[in-house]
Amino acid sequence: MKFSNLNIQTQREAPNNARTEGFAFLVRAGYLTRENVPTKLGEHTLAHLRNLASDPAFLLHLSLPVINNEAETFLPIQSGSIEVAHCPACKYTERLELAHFVKTPSPPEDELPLEKVLTPDCHTIEALADFLGVPKEKTAKALMYTRLDDNGFIFVIVRGDMQLSEAKLKQHVGETRPATTEEIERSGAAAGYASPIGLKNTLIVVDDLIPQSQNLVAGANETGYHLRNTNYGRDYSAEIVADLVQARAGDACINCGNPLSALSSLHLAAGKEYHFENILLALAETHHDTKGLTLPHSAAPFDVYLMQVPGKEMDTRAKAEEIYNTLQTAGISVLFDDREERAGVKFNDADLIGCPLRVTVGEKGLKGGMVELKPRQVKENQLVQIQKVVEEINSILK
Ligand SMILES: [Zn+2]
């Protein structure tokens, strides 16, 4: 491919809308527009990645520090939009909203008799716990939903110090929406003072910590009142007992007990369904230096960036064309910078675009039958005899 075929436009400055260095370099190197649309070079690179994806182990060959489970693959990155729980010790990886963790039950207690107490203006767990002088983990948090497919009323209980994960709830009951006050009242519950005790036509769903938690404060289903000492099994029971609460950073890994990290991540793949644009961004985020991209050989759209420095006496361009054809015939993919630009501009663009190798055809070298060869991440270039250039390139790329 020639520079002019791809109409590559590089930029000297990072776009001012760049949230990450990787995105900034993809725009500066001419892979993406600043509106995040792939250019011809970007499309060519995405096509190359799609082509590689016929290999089931393709993601593993891209030198990306991914985290994954059987279903999904992520790249942790600050600007990522998905929170992922990850255990650095055993590599357990799961979307944070679905991650399981080890829960610590409160010490077991004898079940005490129910006691109705006046709790004015206690509309939140915090206010209730403060008013009664109990820790939040001694309260039952009530959440009420209506199932979309059958309008069934669903009453959920988690321990008062924990948050419900709606994603986990959905796995057990399907799609829901918050119940209306009318629906809550129809079940026999009182909004703000609700418990599952004595409700009609209600699907009760509790977090698996609730059956192990004795003497919780819960609503009395009467405005202004709560009940002390509600106990699962004695006072109510549930159709579904499951892990329903949201994991947080520092919670204990379900497999090994070590603390989980919560990592902002980019979603790269679900099974064999790849997000190629995210993979390109992931490559740019993890493979760049101060001058531009440093793409790994497997992912780079071209093996070689070929350029010529205009000569005073010799036609370096004709010689570069010849080398271009030789390399391509040898199965080496080449981006030929065929522009009439100063050498400095081309060197900068070669660094920006980030092909693994740069081959420079200049008058001084040609006089001795040589060209310059420079791996992207090596400072010094080496002179190589033109007859040996294919062999040399292949040995470096191997
Ligand atoms: Zn673990």
Mean pLDDT: 94
The structural class is: alpha+beta
Figure out the total of helices.
11
Shape: rod-shaped
Largest sheet: 6 strands, antiparallel
Low-confidence stretches: none
Sheet-strand content, in percent, reads: 15-25%
Question: If you compute it from the alpha carbons, what radius of gyration comes out, rounded to the nearest whole angstrom?
Answer: 31 Å
Number of E-state strands: 21
Distance between the termini: 22 Å
Helix fraction, binned, reads 10-25%
Which cofactor or ligand species appear? zinc ion
Give a brief rundown of this model.
With 398 residues, the chain is α+β, with helices and mostly antiparallel strands. It contains eleven helices and 21 strands.
List keywords for this structure.
single chain; 398 residues; alpha+beta; six-stranded antiparallel β-sheet; five-stranded mixed β-sheet; 11 helices; 25% helix; rod-shaped; binds zinc ion
Provide structural commentary.
The protein is of the alpha+beta class and 398 residues long. Helices cover 25% and strands 24% of the residues. It is built from eleven helices and 21 strands. Helix 2 (21-28) crosses helix 7. The mean pLDDT is 94. Residues 87, 89-90, 92, 253, 255-256, 258 line the site of zinc ion.
